[in-house]
Amino acid sequence: MNQTQNGETCDASMAVHNFSEKILEQEVHFHVMKLSGGFFLWVGSNPVLSNLAVSMSSKYDSMPLSTLILGDPSDTTSNSLAQRLAKKTKKQVYVSYSLPLTDSSLGLLVEERIKKELELHPELF
To answer: Rounded to an integer, what distance in angstroms lies between the CA atom of residue 82 and that of residue 104?
Structure first.
């Protein structure tokens, strides 16, 4: 949907999509905001924005560029996930991953759930 604002045409499409799943006995919530040319993904069990990373494709490298905007630089989970999602979707991706890093299999299962949702509802990302 296009709207005119101050004489300029802009894309006003923004969609919000929420889903949850119990993974390894932990309720995990997912919040997706579709943006023009990309999306924001928050993953967590409590409403906390403890970190934020962004990643986007580059014509100079096959691996998307990524950087941490907010949070502990020693925790690379958000960065890595944003990079993999940017590579898969060819979009600019913002990721906030706010789950404890106690179980590595939790991270893999969370990423599989995101990929499943991407396949089921690509129009929401």
So the answer is: 17
Distance CA 77, CA 103 (A): 12
Cα(14)–Cα(20) distance, rounded to whole angstroms?
A: 20
Q: How much is the pTM?
A: 0.86
8 Å CB contact between 66 and 86 = yes
Tokens of 49: 């924005």
State the Cα–Cα distance between residues 110 and 7, nearest whole angstrom: 43
Indicate the angle between helix axes 104-120 and 77-89, nearest 10 degrees: 30
Tokens coding 28:
């995990």
Cα 26 to Cα 105: distance, rounded to the nearest angstrom: 12
| Residue carrying the six token digits 């997912």 | 30
pLDDT in tens, 50-79: 999 999 999 999 999 999 999 999 999 999
Other CB atoms within a 10 A radius of the CB of residue 114 amount to 21
What the block records as the tokens of 65 is 């560029």
